[in-house]
Design brief:
The protein is an alpha+beta fold and 202 residues long. It is built from 4 helices and 11 strands; from the N terminus they run ββββββββαβββααα.
């Protein structure tokens, strides 16, 4: 569904690294950014689930300006909704000037340039008024072209009290369940399991 309420039906391909959705139907082929779209959905054959995305405004951390992004609905409850957004992949170059470990003069292998790719997954909780608040931030980094390619993942809970605000008196029970099942709130997959347990309590 586009911002002007035009409904399109056809093949969809969502590039979460660029945050662009491509549409194709017959001879019609277009690509859209989040600013041009209200939302879209498709059936994910790999995960055997219908995936639903909405285009929502958010405030840029870098500029403070309002932008639009694609937010996937993970879970919906009477008083709040859980969504996730993947930011577009950013890249930067970094030169290794540290020298080699033997203290000998550096050469090309030690001075080569590394490319650092970074993408964030941010889990939001949205209240009934549509206010989005970030709960969990997951940063993925890929370092390519250095002496040793590597991947790094960093998880950070933005507001520990936020979940309690929405689940109320069930919060202590969720903590007990997560401890019993060895689940962590700062792990996206574990968080979904905890929320699924929460749904059984209502």
């Amino acid at each position: 569904m586009l911002q002007d309420n035009t409904e399109l039906k056809g093949l969809l391909k969502f590039d979460d690294k660029k945050e662009i959705v491509a549409f194709e139907s017959g001879n019609l082929s277009k690509s859209f950014t989040a600013r041009k779209v209200l939302g879209f959905e498709y059936f994910d054959n790999r995960k055997d689930v219908q995936r639903v995305y909405y285009s929502l405004p958010y405030q840029s951390e870098e500029t403070g300006a309002e932008n639009y992004g694609f937010f996937e609905v993970l879970r919906q409850y009477p008083n709040f909704t859980v969504l996730i957004r993947k930011t577009p992949v950013t890249s930067r170059k970094k030169k290794n000037n540290g020298g080699n470990p033997n203290g000998q003069p550096t050469n090309a292998i030690w001075n080569q340039e590394a490319i650092i790719l970074e993408q964030k997954e941010i889990v939001f909780l949205m209240d009934e008024s549509g206010l989005l608040t970030s709960f969990l931030e997951i940063t993925h980094k890929e370092v390519e072209g250095s002496l040793l390619d590597r991947s790094v993942e960093k998880n950070k809970i933005e507001d520990k009290k936020l979940l309690k605000k929405f689940v109320g008196d069930y919060y202590d029970e969720l903590l007990r369940y997560s401890k019993e099942m060895r689940l962590q709130l700062d792990d996206k997959d574990d968080l979904i399991k905890i929320l699924d347990y929460y749904e059984t309590l209502n």
